[in-house]
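JOB MANIFEST
job_type = single_chain_structure
chain_count = 1
residues = 435
[input]
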Amino acid sequence: MGNLSSSAEMVVRVPPVSAPLDLERVRRKVEAGEILSDAELALLRAEAQRGTGSALRLALAHALINAGAEREALPLLESLRRDFPRDLPVRLGLARALLGLERHGDAERLLTEVLAQSPGDPEVLKVLAVLGLRRGEADKARAYVADALARDPFDAEARLLKEELESVDLPPPSVPQEQVLRPEFTAALTAALGRARVAFRRQGKDLLVKLATGGVGRVDVGSLYAAYQESPGTQGLTAYADALAARLGGLSSGLSAEVAALEARLRPVLRPADFAARAVGALHRPGPAGLEVFYVLEDAEFVRYLPEAALAPAGLTPESADAAAWRNLASRLAPVRPVLVDQGEVRLAEAFSGLWAVAEGDGHDAARLLLPPQRKALALLAGEGPLRVALGRRELVLVCRESDAAACEALARLVPSPDGIPGAFRLTEEGLSAV
């Protein structure tokens, strides 16, 4: 793979290994940037697990990157760097993975560190030039290419980079996205509600909003902030808050519908034991593992809890509301996907990672763990033994085998989000319990 353009990957440097012919052929395919077949990848993975040096593990990491699985390759490369901290191919491989994940700042810091230890190394200069291309920093890219060619005028990769710099229009440098912290978001929202003349009151981490149809609705600010972070728009925080305030001002309770329609919208959610002090008047009952079961009305945008006072007018009882909520939830199980943890963020994994996410993403995934069909779907991937569970992210549930010490440690290191449930939990055939 000789072209080091911004759209192509850099040339892979895989040290030669002493291996059988088939394995050597696989290694050459990796070095050429080709994508391995499943059988070839399995062979390389098995040999890498048996090996003691860096060569096969590094080849496996490059094979994963070639296949677009940079997130799976990253932990392997970080482990290699710990074992071989001054190995140049290892550090260049790590830089390649970081570039593939668009972590340009981390890649630049690593490459600058390597360049300080190996001044003028042409391989490092060329990777820095690729980084410059991807960031639209033409002057930096040209300087690195010129330095590499000054050391070796016949370097084919550097010459290709020079030709690309002369022939393509580089994109402008990216503009950093505005970083808005939760207190700033909350302040902007409350100011917008005031401008829109929407009556509201702060209660802990929630907002009590006067509904357009009368009554009061409870709004989870954490969920609103998470939605803003996911899709902040292009108009700025003030405009976003004004639009959100207008939507909140037009909310209805949703409780005036027929009983059948109201029952069809009920869903159960799990909340920590102290949540009742925040959701005053909301229907709830004790749940497993010291948690509480609350009930919400299905809504694509807002978390709206069912008030206990709404049961009698709707012809419902706590028992019938509970049965309807669980029946509705059972009609839609969540997909189970392999994931990994990358710098505190949960990301999809392209292959087995030892961690799985129960992730429908509607806020009900923790409650789904109490459904036998959901536990059966989870067992098909994670096995029949006890599972360690993390409920720290409301939009998904993370699980791993309790026997997998490394995966349990990864879950323990995750910092719960403000609207998540802290602590560690255990899932067995008997249900959910606290660790």
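[summary]
The two ends are 50 Å apart (CA to CA).
The chain has a mean pLDDT of 81.
exit_status = 0
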